[in-house]
Fold TfoX N-terminal domain-containing protein.
Amino acid sequence: MAFNERLAHRIREALAHLPDVEEKKMFHGICFMVNGKMCLCVRLDEMLCRIGPDKYAEALEMNHCRPMIHNGRTMTGFVFVSEEGIKKKKDFEYWVNLALAFNKEAKASKKVVKKKK
């Protein structure tokens, strides 16, 4: 699983003040779950942000931002931001804060219960 460790470290530092952050391997990278909900991920050199449907269209108009397409389906409310779009601290913080703001209202995914064999 190849992802930008430096970017993952930046996200860890940005979320360090929060009490409930967990890291999980997802989307061929590493995801940061906040309060049990997917918030930010690192995949290759991009940051995946869960920003919700209300900010989605506006975000796609910004430079260095593209939609998330998973299994051929566009995932509304999720965007990838390239490394170029988060080089500056204020740009990085913008995306992190946008994802954290949506996280407060986002619903957690249903827990998958594994059946015993």
Notes: Residues 5-103 form a domain with the Aspartate Aminotransferase, domain 1 fold (CATH 3.90.1150.30). The helical segments are 5-15, 53-60, 89-103. The CA atoms of residues 60 and 66 lie 6 Å apart. The two ends are 29 Å apart (CA to CA).
